[in-house]
Amino acid sequence: MLGEVVKAAFAADANLKSTLSALQSLNIAPLKKTRSDKLRRLPLPPPDVYDTAFVTERRFERFLGAFRSVEYLEDDFFVTYDPAQHDRVRHLAGKIVLVTNYLPQKGKPDEIINTLVNYLNFCITAADSPIVVWDWDNHHHLHISSLLAAGADVYCPSHPANDYELSCFCDYRQRIPACSHQWSREFVIANIGLVQRGDRRDDALGGFNNYSLFPARNATVETLSRQLPNVGFVDTSIYWRKTDVERLDEWTSYKCHWIVPTLNDVSIRVYDSLLTGGVVVVPRKFASEPVVRALHPDDYVLYDDYDLGDAKRIVARAVEKFDAQGPYGAARRCAWAVEHHNVDSRIREVLTTYRKFLELHRV
Q1: Predicted confidence (pLDDT) at residue 362 exceeds the cutoff of 80
Q2: What's the burial of 50, exposed, middle or buried (CB within 10 Å: 0-12/13-18/19+)?
Q3: Which residues, in sequence order, are CB contacts of 276 under 8 Å at separation 6+?
Q4: Secondary structure (DSSP) of 114-180
Q5: What's the CA gap between 24 and 323, in Å, rounded?
Q6: pLDDT, tens digit, 9 for 90 and up, residues 81-96
C-alpha cells in the first residue's frame, strides 16, 4: 500500500515537471517583452477606483452599479474572437480588460483549446488594453492557468497553490481570493429579512458537485451524507435554475454550512455561507487563512479528518455558536461578507492591484 503511494507521488511529480518544461520551452519571452513595454507606456487609472475604465464579464453586471465607466464582454467573446476583426480590439483601447478564468475557456470540450488560442491572440493584438486575469481555479487547472498567466499583464490567482510554477509565466502576480457571486449587495439588503429569520433549522447545509478528479473529497462528502440529511451531492444544473430568492431562502434555512474543499482552496461556499448569515464548518487547515482569522469566534467551527465519523457532534457545536448571537450574528456576518467578500469589493481590489503594479513598473 505505502509503496503504491510513493510510486504515485513520483509519477505525479514527473508529470508536472514534464508539463511545465514543455510549456516553458515554447518561449513566452515575446509575450513578456510586449507586456513590459505596454505597462511602461499605459497611463495610470484615475485615483478613484470607481472612475476606472474597464471591461469585464457580463455575469458581473448586476454587482457593479457603483462603477461609472464599465462595459461588458459577452460569454462568447473569446470563442468567436478573430484577430482580423480590428474593431473588436480598437473600441477597448485604454480600458482594462478584467476577466476570470471562465471566459477564456468557454465552449464545448473540443472548443476550449481554440478558445485559449483566441485568448492569447487577443492578448498580443490588444496593445492598448491592459489584460488583468483573476483566476479562481489555479489550484487544479494548472495547464489552463499557465496559459492565462502567460497572456495576462497582471495575473491574480485566488489560491496559493502552484505559485512558483505560475511565476514562470507572469511576473506581476497578486493573490486575490474568489468571492460570493450569487447575490448583489442591493438584493441582499432588500431581502435582509431572510438572513435574520428566526426559523432556521438546527442543521447543516452542503450541496456539492461530484468531481471525478477528487475521489478523496468525494469520499468525504459521501461519509457526511450518511449522517447529515442535507449534505451531499447535488445536480448543480437544477440549482442554478432556481431564482435568486429561492437560493437565498435555501441557504438561510440552515444555521451552519459544511465546507469540503477540492484541494487546498478556500471554497466559494465559505463566502456564500457568511453572506447568508450562517456559521461555517471548515477544515482545521483553514485556520491560518486570512478570511478565517478575521472571523468572530462564533462564526466558525474547525474540524479534523477524525471528526468525520461524528459529524452531528460538530454540527451541534456550530448550532450552539449560531444561537449565541442568533439573528444579530447572522446579520453581522452578512454585512461583513457583503462589504468585503462580494463581487463589487473584489473588483475594487483587483483594479487597485493593477494600479499599484503600474506604479511599481515605473520606479
Answers
A1: no
A2: middle
A3: 195, 248, 251, 252, 334
A4: HHHHHHHHHHHH-TTS-EEEEETTTTT-HHHHHHHHHH-SEEEESSSTTHHHHHTT-S-B------B
A5: 53
A6: 988 877 778 889 999 9
Dihedral sign for Cα atoms in the order 80, 86, 87, 92: positive
Rounded distance, CA 66 to CA 351, Å? 14
- In terms of residues, how long is the chain? 363
Edge to edge, what strands does the sheet with 279-283 contain?
231-233, 201-208, 254-258, 279-283, 300-303
Q: What is the dihedral of CA 156, 157, 160, 161, to 10 degrees?
A: -140
Return the half-sphere exposure (C-beta side, CA atoms, 13 A cut-off) of residue 109. 0
Q: Which domains can be identified in the chain, with CATH numbers? A: 2-179+343-361 (3.40.50), 185-340 (3.40.50)
Cα 49 to Cα 186, 211, 250, distances in angstroms: 20, 38, 34
Element (H, E) at 311: helix 311-340
- What are 301-315's pLDDT values in tens digits? 999 999 999 999 999
pTM: 0.91
Give me the amino acid identity at 151: G
- Tell me the residue ranges of DSSP E strands in the chain: 54-57, 70-73, 96-100, 131-135, 154-157, 201-208, 231-233, 254-258, 279-283, 300-303
Contacts of 323 (CB under 8 A, 6+ apart): 255
**Which residues have CB under 8 Å from 115's CB, separation 6+?**
78, 79, 104, 105, 106, 107
End-to-end CA separation in angstroms for the chain: 55
Q: Which three cell numbers stand for residue 167?
A: 511565476
